[in-house]
Amino acid sequence: MDDEKYDQLISSVTPMESADGVETYTNTVAMNCPACDEPFDDAVVCTDEYNSLELSLDLDLCVTTHEGDVVLFTHKP
Fold first, then answer.
1. Is 65 helix (H, G, I), strand (E, B) or coil?
2. Per DSSP, which regions of 10-68 are E strands?
3. What is the mean pLDDT of residues 51-70?
4. Residue 68 region, left (φ>0) first, then alpha (ψ -120 to 50), else beta?
5. Distance of alpha carbon 6 from its chain centroid, rounded?
6. Are 74 and 44 in contact (CB under 8 A)?
């Protein structure tokens, strides 16, 4: 993902949590996922080299990268 798209994404979503190399944002503006072009629920940015995510819900995931960080987009089925 290029810088312009990433900056637009981060400025459009609502920050929820930042801890242990994981930043979570909620899509409160019905922005479309850059991977599948459907609205996503949350964006998760993994900034550390290794991250572990414990998911309590069944989710579909789309994935991209930005400057070495993994960016996940969640979709509730």
1. strand
2. 14-19, 22-26, 42-46, 60-66
3. 88
4. left
5. 10
6. yes
